[in-house]
Specification:
- By secondary structure, this protein is mostly helical.
- The chain is built from 19 helices and no strands.
- It has helices at 2-14, 18-33, 39-51, 56-94, 96-99, 103-131, 135-150, 154-171, 180-184, 191-211, 219-232, 240-248, 254-266, 274-282, 287-309, 313-317, 320-349, 353-369, 373-390.
- Helix 8 (154-171) runs antiparallel to helix 17.
- The longest helix is centred in the N-terminal third of the chain and has 39 residues, at 56-94.
- The protein is globular, with a radius of gyration of 20 Å.
- The protein starts with a helix and ends with a helix.
- 48% of the residues are buried.
- Residues 177-184 have low confidence and may be disordered.
- It is a multi-pass membrane protein.
Length: 392
């Protein structure tokens, strides 16, 4: 268990670049170097993480740990990979009052907000090309974006995801070639973990419905908000942004939210570790408890669903209607992310023609030269500080 923890902890210290980069780091370490599993098995775990809601790269890491050491191995992998980013974002949250008011740090934060515009725009471009190739998928993307821009709410997002799954099931189901073995293979789901996932989701929905007028007033409500978000995020990474903003928007200011998101770009590890920053900011009376509850809640649904389907993924993925439903959901979340690019990211970060020029320049350099994310973080941070000092 300690070996699993140590391997993932060392990756958590240096894994900049988001989910796609994390997948590459995992393959290099666990397939090519350590040979804990082969390429075929690893590819199936990556595919399963795309099929399930939750933090994609962290789910792959959890599954590798599970393959190596059972449930405790999966937990050790999660703790190791997430701990560095959790500690950094928690410390940034609890010390924010000491450094956030300085003009120098305000400039850095503003520069990182501009970086967020670039990174999310690039994520939308990549996801659009990957998930919106057919006309039906493009239409789902456009309609989900329009509706969320006009009616931004968690309930509306949840309804759109269900509708997109139904549309995708009928219109985006591709023909699949089945071997006789796959066609007759039975899907054997782990009902204990499925019941636990569904039970917690229903309880969180009830709790949120009962307390939506009063906001987050206890740890149960905090857990419920983040658990619901973790249950609905398909694609992981930046897709968590619009759902989190809708869910906890009343409990935290837009500026605090975007500061946390900007800082999450600057630390290694999973984007979902943003929950540590938000949990500490929301639960100020005991920030460590708030950070722990929010982080556990947002990661838990994805891990429970991985445990439900790990042993039956081959049979599940062979069913065209299932893959069609997921295709519809993926197209829908691209629309969500496009709406989030406008509100809250763009309108909170781009405040002048100079800001827009920096975004265009950054996006162009990002697409042409594809620099390391650490270089981008440093470049936008320094630029923001300089602009704040000499112009602001």
């Amino acid at each position: 268990m300690f070996q699993i923890f140590l391997r993932f902890f060392s990756l958590g210290l240096v894994s900049f670049g988001g989910p796609a980069a994390h997948i590459g780091y995992f393959r290099q370490t666990f397939v090519q170097e350590l040979k804990w599993l082969d390429d075929k098995h690893y590819g199936s775990l990556v595919a399963l993480s795309q099929f399930m809601p939750g933090p994609g790269s962290s789910q792959v890491g959890f599954a590798i740990g599970y393959h190596r050491g059972g449930l405790l191995g999966g937990i050790a992998a999660f703790l190791g990979f997430t701990l560095p980013s959790f500690i950094l974002l928690f410390l940034l949250a609890v010390t924010s009052s000491q450094w956030l008011d300085y003009s120098f740090t305000q400039g850095i934060i503003h520069g990182l907000k501009l970086l967020a515009v670039v990174v999310v725009a690039d994520a939308i471009w990549i996801m659009f090309k990957q998930f919106c190739q057919r006309k039906q998928a493009k239409l789902l993307m456009v309609m989900s974006c329009v509706i969320i821009l006009l009616q931004p709410s968690m309930l509306m997002q949840f309804g759109l995801l269900i509708a997109a799954a139904l549309v995708g099931r009928h219109y985006l189901s591709g023909e699949r070639e089945h071997t006789a073995e796959v066609a007759t293979e039975r899907v054997k789901l782990n009902l204990f973990y499925l019941s636990l996932f569904v039970g917690l989701l229903l309880a969180s929905l009830v709790m949120i419905t009962l307390t939506k007028q009063t906001g987050i007033t206890n740890l149960t409500e905090l857990f419920s908000q983040f658990y619901q978000v973790g249950s609905m995020v398909f694609g992981g990474g930046h897709v968590v942004l619009p759902l989190l903003q809708s869910s906890v928007g009343d409990a935290i200011s837009n500026d605090q939210f975007l500061t946390g998101y900007a800082l999450a770009q600057a630390v290694p590890g999973p984007m979902f570790a943003l929950a540590a920053f938000l949990g500490a900011e929301i639960w100020v009376q005991q920030p460590l408890i708030g950070a722990l509850v929010a982080t556990l809640a947002i990661f838990l649904p994805g891990f429970l669903l991985m445990l439900v389907a790990l042993k039956s993924w081959h049979a599940i993925s062979a069913r065209p209607q299932v893959t069609g439903a997921i295709a519809g959901v993926n197209a829908c979340v691209v629309g969500f992310l496009l709406a989030a690019l406008y509100n809250p990211i763009f309108i909170s970060a781009v405040l002048s023609p100079l800001d827009m020029a920096l975004v265009v320049l950054g996006f162009g350099l990002f697409k042409i030269f594809k620099p390391n994310i650490f270089i981008l973080v440093a470049g936008f941070g320094v630029t923001g500080a300089l602009v704040g000092a000499f112009i602001g």
